[in-house]
Specification:
Layout (H helix, E strand, L loop, with lengths): L5 H19 L1 H10 L4 H15 L1 H6 L3 H4 L1 H23 L4 H8 L2 H12 L6 H17 L10 H23 L9 H20 L12 E4 L2 E4 H26 L2 H8 L1 H14 L5 H19 L17 E2 L5 E2 L1 H4 L7
Antiparallel strand pairs: 1-2, 3-4
Helix pairs in contact: 1-12, 1-14, 2-12, 2-14, 3-6, 3-11, 3-12, 6-10, 6-11, 7-10, 7-14, 8-9, 8-10, 8-15, 9-15, 12-13
Length: 338
């Protein structure tokens, strides 16, 4: 239930900030492992498989979801877990962490593009302004005036992460109703299991050099135990991040929690600057701020669902177990991304 008291909202905001911090640290912890010799797909597999093991009790508790919502679980596992994280981790192996995450924040703008041109539903002028701001900010982030100084494949992979996030939001909009709503924590648990199964086939962890996890990884000149970084990625940047994200949405609202979640990009950029030495120029910082402002406007101006069939549903068509209206973002703990 939403909290109306001042202390309850303060607690919810604190939990939402904690979720943003936890999500924002994933790339910073993963990049030293990748640069130390681990394949990005292997790091993703370790993250997802480890988190799936931790979430097994929740999966068992919500085992009825396997029959009730197989498409939603498959979509979450393939897109929000395997797709987003594989593309994101591959991207940060080629471009700075902050740049990759800011590109992923084009997702709200891309969702509006889907609504306008595929579903052929109207969007507000404010939403269009948000999309244009996000695009202009992204141009500053990648410094288009210098001929795209970043690795082109890295930029495409980051955009792929954004597209996977859009795909999950669209799928979620088709899968909810007010009478038989899935519990978000159950969806997360099974999404991790599905993602782990898919990534096991794709990543082939049996070929991974496991000895690298017993050593240390270089974090801008500081040697950090690889096992410690992996523990942070699994327990903090995944399990804790998703759970606190769901809790914050239920204590606040999808809209408020989504705004706070935008700080994830700020956290990731600052941590990458301090811990990895990935410095951004003044135009990139300004562009990043514009991307987040545009993403916020685009997200807050997403059209409401009409009262017709589910197939025509919008972002408010997914419901919580308590019967309260929530956006697709609630199932993904605000942001399914890293």
């Amino acid at each position: 239930m939403r909290t109306s008291s001042g202390s309850g909202r303060s607690a919810g905001l604190g939990i939402a900030l904690g979720s943003a911090f936890a999500f924002g640290g994933s790339g910073v912890a993963a990049k030293p492992l990748i640069e130390g010799g681990l394949d990005p797909l292997h790091v993703v597999w370790l993250r997802v498989a480890g988190s799936a093991l931790v979430m097994l009790p929740l999966a068992w508790r919500h085992r009825a979801l396997v029959l009730r919502r197989p498409a939603l679980l498959a979509g979450f596992g393939l897109l929000a877990v395997a797709g987003v994280q594989a593309c994101y981790f591959a991207a940060i192996s080629r471009i700075p962490v902050g740049v990759a995450l800011l590109i992923e924040y084009l997702a709200p703008a891309l969702v509006l593009g889907w609504v306008r041109f595929v579903q052929r539903r109207p969007v507000t002028r404010a939403a269009v302004v948000g999309v244009l701001l996000a695009a202009a900010g992204l141009a500053c982030v990648v410094e288009v005036w210098s001929g795209l100084g970043f690795d082109a494949l890295g930029l495409l992979l980051a955009l792929g992460a954004a597209c996977c996030q859009v795909g999950y939001f669209v799928l979620s909009d088709q899968g909810g109703d007010s009478h038989d709503a899935p519990d978000p924590l159950g969806v997360i648990a099974y999404g991790l299991l599905v993602g782990a199964a898919v990534l096991t086939v794709v990543a082939g962890p049996w070929g991974m050099d496991w000895s690298l996890l017993a050593g240390a990884a270089d974090m801008d000149g500081t040697q950090v135990p690889a096992a410690l970084l992996l523990g942070w990625i699994v327990l903090i940047a995944t399990v804790l991040a998703y759970v606190t994200g769901v809790v914050s949405v239920r204590m606040l609202s999808p809209q408020v929690a989504g705004v706070v979640a935008c700080l994830e990009a700020v956290v990731a950029t600052v941590l990458a600057w301090v811990l990895l030495g990935e410095h951004l120029s003044a135009p990139q910082i300004a562009g990043g701020a514009v991307v987040l402002i545009g993403a916020f406007i685009a997200q807050s101006q997403a059209p409401k669902a009409p009262s017709g069939p589910v197939a025509e549903g919008g972002p408010e068509s997914v419901r919580t177990g308590a019967g309260e209206s929530a956006s697709a973002g609630e199932l993904s703990a605000g942001h399914p991304a890293p």
